[in-house]
Amino acid sequence: MKQIFFLFLLISINLFAQEKNCGSILRLNEYLKTNTEAENTRSKLEKLTADFQFQKKVNTTIPVVVHIVYKNATENISDAQIQSQLNVLNEDFTRSNTDAFNTPTDFLPIVANAQINFCLAMQTPNGKPTNGIIRRHTTEEFFSLLGNKIYYDSLGGSSAWNTEKYLNIWVCKTESGILGWSQFPSGGDPETDGVIIDFEHFGTFGTAKYPYNLGRTATHEIGHWFNLFHLWGDNNCGNDWVNDTPIQEQANFGCKMHPHTSCSNSGDMFMNFMDYTNDACMNSFTEGQKNRIWASISSWRIGLLTSNGCSPATIANSDAGIISIIEPNNLNSNCASPIYPKVVLKNYGTTTLNTVIIKYNINGSNDYYQSWNGSLNNNETDTFLLSGLASTGTTHLLNVSTISPNNNIDINASNDEESIIFSSINGEQVQLSLMTDNYALETSWTLLDENDNTIDSGDSLANNTLYQKLYCLGYSCYKFVINDSYGDGFCCNLGNGNFAIISSIGNIQYAQSVPFTFSDTSYFCIGNTAINEKNTTYKIYPNPTEGNLWVNQEFESDNTPIFARILNSLGQIILSVEIVNNKINLSCLKNGVYQLVIQKEEQEYLHKIIIQK
Ligand SMILES: [Zn+2]
Q: What pLDDT score does 291 carry?
């Protein structure tokens, strides 16, 4: 007799499987078969659940992330359809569902408001803003109940968000006959902990298909996720571990008339969400089920209570940008090297801007970076100079942008950058610094080009005064002449007169003062122009040289030793030798411009030389 009945049950289940099937129990049992430790944990959980008395007085809201894993456009259901499912969950778990009045009167004493709300997640586990919906295209035809592909990006599914902090719901095409399944507390691995719903049984419109078209599949599966069993305990008059639900013989399908009795009860609670009836015919959880739900939330799923997934992401309101470039401008020609951009920074953000990185370049290459520090309130601006950068050619595109305001991500990148096209003179900016002595009226100076045309000059100077002037000098050679009408130079007994000509970029020292009496002339060249030798006391050649430099002393006939000193661009002595056989070996020097000082007794003669190997 027993065997006959068992056979009947199998046939029945097969028949019903055509209508509705939830895979949760099968998946749970498969998992526990090979995971005895999980089974022990579940036993402890059941012990705790049996002792649990619901104390919670306020509602809680559980963050939900919905993974839409679709193969075609139909399966890629709309945001609105997803929201319709969230609405159903919020109604069913707070007993605010409009069909609650359908509950038969004799069950009213046991039905419950489970006091649970759900939200589509507003922030990701990393604190970024989100709408709580992930969409992933897959090549899988469908996802099978006992497979795990749906749970992993790498397998054509979608990887779960932290399952302790979020309810993960995957919506996809499930294997035929299965409406969905979920994972019980301690009923599987953390990465697979969530709920799967077939795309034709999610939400209340769109792809939702009668008779499981009112979102109750998700209500039911989330019930399992909260540790609820089917009312018939998946057994003939089995146990669902809830005291107030009537024992019932088996699953109910379709819609039943109350009372529909079995197992000596006074009526199956076929309208319970944990039965198998049509969506339109179910409407209740019970107090006993609520107690199990909250026992699971208070133990295995306690992480939900501290999840911030339902709170908006609190990103810093950091938004800065360059609003204009004042210099260089497209009205004047600018010295090609260096360019000193003058820019205006604005704080668009509501938080005070204290630091930002300025990135700039010419013609899109060789990025320069400069940090700005200060304090700008919302909508305030600051105008400042950037460090110089070199440019070649005559027309240029300068780009200036901001990065990392207050070390955060800029929430609006579209206002970060400003650009300007400008023209420039082929040349380099140099600075003349001249300090006078106690008798400045004796001093005068002239800056000349290589054809002895005067570029600038100065006299009638004030005592002990620093004069600084900027020039844009083209790529050519120049000389700077300093005179003292009294013939005692301007250094160092009566004051400390001196001068230097230094490039604005790279601090190359092109000329500097040496002791003189009435006059001294310094020669220098800008760019890679060969030096035109102007000093006729000694001829030196070749210049540029690869290493050996010859010094012609044809006007010298005595045997007085002659010395040579080589100075680098900073004026530092890097080589000091006696000139023997008219030759200096400079092969140890790197390529570059140097000063050669030839000294005979008290006389010194300055040359510029270029090492070019
Ligand atoms: Zn189920």
A: 94
The answer, yes or no, to whether residue 610 has pLDDT greater than 50, is yes
Domain ranges of the chain: 15-230+283-306, 320-425, 436-529, 539-613
Angle at 344 between CA 357 and CA 387, to 5 degrees: 55
Q: Is residue 61 predicted with pLDDT exceeding 70?
A: yes
Query: How many angstroms separate the alpha carbon of residue 223 from the centre of ligand 1?
Result: 8
Q: In what order do the strands lie in the sheet with 320-327?
A: 320-327, 342-347, 381-385
**Fold observed for domain 15-230+283-306:** Collagenase (Catalytic Domain) (3.40.390)
**Fold (topology level) of 320-425:** Immunoglobulin-like (2.60.40)
- This model's pTM is above 0.90: no
Tell me what pLDDT residue 16 has: 42
pLDDT, averaged across the chain: 86
Q: Which of 221, 249, 418, 442 is catalytic?
A: 221
Indicate the pLDDT class of residue 561, thresholds 50, 70 and 90.
Answer: confident
| 296 CA to centre of ligand 1 in angstroms | 17
Q: Is 221 tagged catalytic? A: yes
pLDDT of residue 6: 35
Asked, colleague to colleague, whether 320-425 and 539-613 share their fold, the answer is: yes
Residue with tokens 């359908």: 102
H helix runs in 109-257, sequence order:
216-225
Contact 273, 219 (CB under 8 A): yes
Measuring CA to CA, which residue among 529, 522, 548, 507 is closest to residue 607?
Answer: 522
- Distance in Å, CA 182 to ligand 1 centroid: 8
Mean pLDDT of 353-375: 88
Ligand 1 centroid to residue 29 C-alpha, Å: 13
Q: What's the CA-to-centroid distance between 217 and ligand 1, angstroms?
A: 8
d(C-alpha 475, C-alpha 143), whole Å: 73
Compare 301 and 609 and report the one with higher pLDDT: 301
Reduce the DSSP state of residue 38 to 3 states and report it.
Answer: helix
Topology of domain 539-613, CATH = Immunoglobulin-like (2.60.40)
